[in-house]
Amino acid sequence: MMSKQQLSDPITLRLPLDVLAGTEAVAGACDRSRSWIIVRALKSYLAQEGREVLEIAEARRAIANGEGIDAKEMSVRTG
Q1: How far apart are CA 58 and CA 15, in angstroms?
Q2: pLDDT at 29 (0 to 100)
């Protein structure tokens, strides 16, 4: 038996009307709730764009800490 996923307290979210309409259309077509559709969309975003945003932020922190290699230095090493 699968354990039930822990959920946060409810949040309030305002959506553009076209996004809400699309969410409702997909929810109705697959017999799911709007919340289910929104959670799936957020998980997809976090797995793709969200991950990229975090990787870029980490790279910027590394550069700020002097952990990067200058592009000119890299071309000397490889060229």
Answers
A1: 30
A2: 98
